DNA sequence: TTGAAAACTGGCCGATCGGTCAGGAAGCTG
DNA sequence: CAGCTTCCTGACCGATCGGCCAGTTTTCAA
């Protein structure tokens, strides 16, 4: 058995690429399977041949970011509290900047997040990372870390033509004003 | 001529009340006119009798917050830069906390904000208030003020059972860490 | 009390949604 | 070449969407 059929992967990838672009531009709910199919140059039925429903397309779009985040969590777990905090500030920022499209998509799904089990893991990991970033169990610092992450995600949503590096620097600067070292 | 017909205003108000509740809970796009009508105890046709389409319902939901914000802008315009900054920090926080439901609704509409002229004024005023909050024209401080407002709006979206006063205190605390006095 | 205006509604419309299915086209293997 | 699997599609489905309209009920001033 072939590990992957080239044709299958090519179409699949194009669907995910276009779905990402559209979700980011118009929001998950406002994009139809027909929109995705047209953009990817195939029929709606083909989209549903490759993915088991619209939520599965969303899951595929989110998957790379979710995997990267899970990797970050795994690393952070091996560090001391102070190290984990510094690690979280730097790498969570990186992740949000690089995957800023995903950040945008997630925001649009928040109101119905309970009905989307396919992204529950991503969200849970994000909250875990926020806890690492706080650096302490003090409720105020935890709340401020959440505040910081909200600002971070918001900034990555509307980058205003900033380059990755400019955006990363801005976010890290803001985080260091908000977050107290452990 | 009667200034207002009681029956008309009563129904209108109930529709707006229920629409607000539903938009906040499930997002603008996920709420149908039928949902609003059922919650308000009338028919979908009645909703369309009082409001010229679904966007008009949204505009009515947002109107009180928009009016309050416009009033804030008018006051801030009469102040010195330093006074306006302090004014913005305190009263923009208040506004976001009191109208937190509206904050939630707006977030859901952001991806299609260009197609919603009825909320363009609100958004423009919010950005103006953000500029006052920065306290200087330095691009970095402007960006940080935007970052702060993103955090503010995010915190008001998911209040986690906090009281108005707790939420207001948290936001003001975070803002004072992020914002440099003019 | 009465009649016109205001408030309201059931039923219908075209469009679009996510999703299904039978079957055609393409590609690989013998 | 034949035959099987994979890939893909047009046509169709039931549901629901926002919106419209003709007509009924309610309100209220004269």
What does this structure look like?
The structure is a homodimer of 182-residue chains. By secondary structure, the first copy, chain A, is mostly helical. Chain A has 2 domains: 1-51, Arc Repressor Mutant, subunit A; 62-178. Helix content of chain A is 75%, strand content 0%. Chain A is built from 9 helices and no strands. Chain A has helices at 6-26, 33-40, 44-50, 54-76, 81-98, 100-109, 120-134, 139-157, 164-178. In chain A, α2 packs across α3 (44-50). The longest helix of chain A is centred in the middle third of the chain and has 23 residues, at 54-76. The first copy, chain A, is elongated. Chain A starts with 5 loop residues before the first helix and ends with a helix. The interface between A and B is medium-sized, with 31 and 31 residues. Chain B binds a DNA duplex (30 and 30 nucleotides) through α1 and α3. Chains A, B: Pfam families: TetR_N. Chains A, B: GO terms for molecular function: DNA-binding transcription factor activity; transcription cis-regulatory region binding. Chains A, B: Residues 9-69 form the HTH tetR-type domain.
């Amino acid at each position: 058995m072939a590990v992957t059929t080239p044709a299958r992967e090519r179409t699949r990838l194009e669907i995910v690429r276009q779905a990402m672009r559209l979700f980011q531009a118009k929001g998950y709910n406002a994009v139809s399977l027909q929109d995705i199919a047209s953009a990817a140059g195939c029929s709606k039925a083909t989209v549903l041949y490759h993915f088991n429903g619209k939520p599965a397309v969303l899951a595929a779009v989110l998957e790379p970011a979710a995997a990267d985040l899970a990797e970050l969590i795994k690393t952070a777990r091996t560090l001391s509290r102070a190290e984990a905090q510094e690690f979280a500030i730097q790498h969570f920022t990186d992740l949000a900047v690089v995957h800023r499209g995903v950040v945008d998509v997630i925001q649009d799904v928040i109101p119905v997040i309970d009905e989307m089990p396919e992204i529950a893991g991503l969200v849970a990991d994000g909250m875990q990372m926020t806890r690492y970033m706080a650096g302490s169990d003090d409720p105020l610092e935890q709340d401020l870390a959440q505040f910081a992450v909200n600002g971070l995600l918001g900034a990555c949503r509307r980058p205003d033509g900033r380059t990755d590096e400019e955006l990363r620097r801005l976010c890290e600067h803001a985080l260091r004003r908000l977050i107290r070292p452990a």
